[in-house]
């Protein structure tokens, strides 16, 4: 039985293949740093988070944020819903120093508990990355392949459900 929270939460498997992390990803909503599997409400994630990536010196990174359970965990027909896409993030710098390709859209789940994942890729060079035509049915694996990004450098996720609902996530 794996103890890796990205495997337990089915982030590895559902949107990315297993990878060895080569960077450290810190995501803060206000002064709260997310940990894998932490629970946040839509009101806590309404504003764009502060994101810092520590990895290979003088590297550039791409950040993808997706909802794996849109529109609902029982029918994730819009998986992966793209909430944010930022490229050319300098190592050690905040994500706001990168190029925002798709603006941050705050998660607003209406049914069930949604997993929201941040996936970071190391770029081999500064490159032009284009916004997809829509946010629903984004595919992180295909995106990484199209832009030759390779395996993820880091990933993290949190759970989010609508305000006032209760219950925990059940894993297979």
Automatic annotation (TrEMBL):
It comes from the Eukaryota. This is Uncharacterized protein.
């Amino acid at each position: 039985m794996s103890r890796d929270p990205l495997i337990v939460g089915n982030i590895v498997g559902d949107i990315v293949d297993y990878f060895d992390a080569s960077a450290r990803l810190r995501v803060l909503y206000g002064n709260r740093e997310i940990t894998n599997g932490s629970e946040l409400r839509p009101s806590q994630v309404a504003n764009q988070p502060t994101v810092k990536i520590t990895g290979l010196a003088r590297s550039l990174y791409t950040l993808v944020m997706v909802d794996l359970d849109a529109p609902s965990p029982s029918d994730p027909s819009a998986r992966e819903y793209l909430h944010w896409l930022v490229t050319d993030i300098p190592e050690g710098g905040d994500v706001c120093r990168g190029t925002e390709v798709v603006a941050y859209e705050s998660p607003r789940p209406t049914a069930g508990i949604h997993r929201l994942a941040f996936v970071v890729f190391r770029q081999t060079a500064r490159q032009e990355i284009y916004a997809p035509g829509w946010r629903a049915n984004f595919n992180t694996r295909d995106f990484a392949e199209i832009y030759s990004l390779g395996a993820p450098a880091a990933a993290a996720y949190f759970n989010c459900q609508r305000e006032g609902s209760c219950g925990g996530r059940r894993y297979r």
